[in-house]
Inverse folding.
């Protein structure tokens, strides 16, 4: 199989709900990163063979193949197709993995992959999911699902609490983790670590999510999301708006068109996990992708485990022995935000840039996903 290279990777700032990007149409968010990616990479847009985007809530403004519409909204060549995938929170990462697989197999040579989600314009919730005014009376699954898993819709909030209990993660530990996420994100913003990867949109130049005034004391005063639970809003990922995209190319394309690769996609993996615990997939996707890559935990310079909830990352770290000093080094979804379909591509984009900044060699990105699945991808910096 052929090598797959990341030629360039960009993202918008991550906008807070009702923030600076709240009124930007999701196709315009996507168009911004696509235009910037083509310009920065120097690739002839006519050579792009497909645009694959992740997007979770594909209704309303995100309904009509947002990848294709974003490409056309950028004024790019009409002969280039587009497609949208949904693997819940891992949609953007899966888009990149699908693109890489097509290049490895020799089916394509240059593909753009990424994701977009405007959670301000298309809110997450039952009405958006089911396409009805209230979503009332619509079951999560049909007769087969009910026969095997019952008639209650799985809840990520229940799952996050249960993970904390099963892995003996205390609320105090999660609050310390969340405070550190904000501290790291604020430091990264102030130090300019994200500047190279961000394309400004609608006057927004920096991520809006991190809170400079957060503290363990403030978090301790917050009520749990569920009666008797441990998880609070401060220990959960933020609702956000953003887009991100990566340009992938084969070795042949790199040489033929004089492209300059920045990273190599070493391996990817996807697993299923308990559909009721939902969020434990990274515990098994991590060793699976490492085995495929022929690497160990010790070889990885940067880990990104998506901060859907603090309990998810802390349980994953317990099982994998991932060191805190190499995990989510510039903050994560608790502080920066989690624009569902864009997050996987955003994490990969940030890892490419952070490996370059620090001189590290390998990065690993993994995340939990609705329905009980998980993606994992290993990248290698190309010097």
């Amino acid at each position: 199989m052929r090598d797959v290279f990341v030629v360039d990777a960009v993202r918008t700032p991550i906008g807070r709900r009702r923030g600076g990007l709240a009124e930007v149409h999701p196709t315009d968010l996507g168009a911004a990163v696509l235009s910037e990616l083509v310009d920065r990479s120097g690739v002839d847009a006519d050579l792009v063979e497909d645009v694959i985007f992740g997007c979770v809530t594909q209704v309303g403004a995100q309904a009509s193949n947002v990848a294709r519409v974003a490409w056309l909204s950028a004024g790019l060549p009409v002969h280039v197709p587009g497609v949208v995938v949904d693997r819940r929170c891992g949609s953007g990462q899966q888009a990149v993995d699908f693109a890489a697989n097509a290049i490895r197999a020799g089916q394509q040579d240059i593909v753009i992959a990424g994701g977009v989600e405007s959670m301000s314009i298309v809110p997450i919730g039952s009405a958006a999911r089911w396409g009805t005014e209230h979503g009332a009376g619509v079951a999560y699954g049909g007769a087969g699902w009910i026969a095997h898993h019952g008639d209650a819709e799985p809840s990520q909030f229940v799952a996050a609490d249960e993970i904390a209990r099963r892995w003996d993660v205390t609320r105090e530990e999660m609050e310390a983790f969340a405070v550190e996420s904000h501290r790291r994100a604020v430091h990264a913003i102030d130090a300019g670590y994200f500047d190279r990867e961000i394309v400004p949109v609608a006057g927004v130049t920096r991520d809006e999510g991190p809170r400079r005034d957060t503290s363990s004391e403030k978090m301790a005063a917050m009520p749990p999301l569920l009666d008797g639970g441990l998880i609070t809003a401060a220990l959960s990922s933020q609702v956000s708006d953003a887009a991100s995209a990566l340009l992938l190319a084969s070795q042949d394309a790199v040489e033929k068109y004089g492209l300059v690769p920045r990273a190599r996609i070493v391996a990817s993996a996807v697993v299923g996990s308990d559909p009721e615990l939902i969020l434990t997939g990274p515990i098994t996707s991590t060793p699976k992708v490492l085995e495929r890559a022929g690497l160990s935990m010790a070889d990885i310079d940067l880990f990104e485990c998506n901060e859907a909830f603090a309990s998810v990352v802390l349980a994953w770290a317990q099982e994998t022995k991932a060191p805190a000093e190499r995990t989510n080094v510039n903050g994560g979804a608790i502080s920066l935000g989690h624009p569902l379909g864009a997050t996987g591509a955003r994490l990969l984009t940030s890892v490419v840039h952070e490996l370059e900044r620090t001189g590290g060699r390998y990065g690993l990105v993994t995340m939990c996903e609705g329905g009980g699945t998980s993606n994992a991808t290993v990248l290698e910096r190309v010097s």
Q: What stands out?
A: The CA atoms of residues 17 and 240 lie 5 Å apart. The radius of gyration is 20 Å.
